[in-house]
Amino acid sequence: MLAGLRWAWSTQILAVIAKIILGLMIRIGIVLLALGIADAFYQKWKYIQELKMTKQEVKQELRDTIGSPEVKSRI
């Protein structure tokens, strides 16, 4: 494609360069769109994981709401 441009007019050269640049921009846009979609799914998954309580947090919450088993046995 570029070898034939040696004797071409400047308008033809600019048209070929514009076509190449447009193709690159479209490819880059597709890659960025795919990365954005993947990142959105990852961020949602990470947010949900951060909301989950650990086993220690669950035990502590149960002790706070219904009381410690040691204290209940003394009553």
UniProtKB/TrEMBL annotation:
Q: Is Transmembrane set as a keyword in this record?
A: yes
Q: What is this protein called?
A: Uncharacterized protein
Q: Which InterPro entries match?
A: T3SS_substrate_exporter
Query: Keyword annotations for this protein?
Result: Membrane, Transmembrane, Transmembrane helix
Segments crossing the lipid bilayer: 20-42
Query: Alphabetically, which GO biological process terms does the record hold?
Result: protein secretion
Question: Which terms in the GO cellular component ontology are assigned?
Answer: plasma membrane
What organism is recorded for this protein? marine sediment metagenome
